[in-house]
Write a structure and sequence with these properties.
Length: 74
C-alpha cells in the first residue's frame, strides 16, 4: 500500500513496486485517483472517504507518506 500515491513522494514509489511484482494499492483523493491508476496501481482508494483500512485487505508493506493518524491506522 502506498499512501498519497498521487503525490510527489508516492508517485515514484509505484513503478518499482509494480516492477517488483507487487499487487499495489494506493490512497489518493477521489478527484485525483485516475492519475495513480494510470501509473499501474491495482487498486486506488479515497483516503478522504471512510477508512481505507476497512476497504482493503491486509497488506504486507505500507509506504506511508502522510504520517500522523494514517501511520497508526496502517
Amino acid at each position: 500500500m502506498i499512501h498519497a500515491a498521487a503525490g510527489g513522494v508516492g508517485t515514484p514509489a509505484v513503478r518499482p513496486a509494480k516492477e517488483g511484482g507487487a499487487h499495489v494499492i494506493g490512497t489518493a483523493s477521489a478527484w485525483n485517483r485516475d492519475f495513480p491508476r494510470g501509473l499501474g496501481l491495482d487498486q486506488v482508494t479515497d483516503h478522504n472517504t471512510g477508512r481505507f483500512e476497512e476497504r482493503v485487505k491486509p497488506v504486507d508493506l505500507v509506504f506511508d507518506t502522510m504520517g500522523g493518524e494514517t501511520r497508526g491506522r496502517s
